[in-house]
Amino acid sequence: MIDFEGLLKALRDGGVEFILVGGAAATAHGSARLTEDVDIVYSRGPENIVRLASALRPYAPYLRGAPPGLPFHWDVETIRRGLNFTLTTSLGSLDVFGEIAGGGSYESLLPDCIDLTVFGIRCRCLGLDRLIQVKRAAGRPKDLEAIAELEALREERGLS
Amino acid sequence: MTERGQRNEVRLAPDPVIEVYKRDVDRTLLRENLKLSVDERFRKLLALQRFAEELRRAGRAGR
Question: What is the ipTM of this complex?
Fold first, then answer.
């Protein structure tokens, strides 16, 4: 189970520059699909990497699906050397992307974001049209139903 | 819902494959969700997650 509020609060309190993407962003736009993780795109700026490392450290981030005991340290060096991380944390599963397929970096997604206040926490969320565009560009068969739902949402909102 | 508008317009041409999938989307669920605030949508998702977790637990116990 995901503690959405806890995760968003940890990132906000840590001053992390991030964009909510994926299933949680779809939920914000009105999706009825069940998602079991939170996906974010973070800025790769050096200061933000320091903030991201600090913000998540108290929640024991570990590589999801990796065998226990693997030498994994969630720190600035790990984030600098890597890019995308699929993590388990004590607050739930969190996917942390430096770049996403079809979408690029935090900076390239920024113009297509909306500002949301969820659980009293202000955060950036990828806009519906760009979310659809990113999922289309990723070209994953498993996303077809999700894309269809997002496009239906767009129609229901009178945006098409 | 507290939400500020999207700044850039992204062009989305219809995709024939997606159009086929779209026929099976239950729009009644979407219309209900669109009446909710963002907070309410996330609370609904949390409730759904709890239900899914409980069903998994029950399924394991029943095997």
Answer: 0.84
pTM of the model: 0.90
**Which pLDDT tens digit goes with each residue over B22-44?**
999 999 999 999 999 999 999 99
Chain B residues closer than 8 Å to A157 by CB? 34
* CA contacts within 13 A on the Cβ side of B28: 0
- Put simply, whether A119 touches B (Cβ < 8 Å) is yes
In this structure, what CATH number is given to the domain that contains residue A132?
3.30.460.40
Which parts of B1-63 fold into alpha helices (H)? Answer: 16-22, 27-34, 38-62
Find chain B residues with C-beta within 8 A of A160's C-beta.
Answer: 12
Structural domain span for residue A96 = 4-149
What would the pLDDT profile of A9-47 be if each residue is shown by its tens digit? 999 999 999 999 999 999 999 999 999 899 999 999 999
- The whole-angstrom separation of Cα A110 and Cα A27 is 19
The answer to the question of residue A105 being in a domain is: yes
CA distance B24 to chain A (A): 9
Q: How far is B57 from chain A (nearest CA, A)?
A: 13
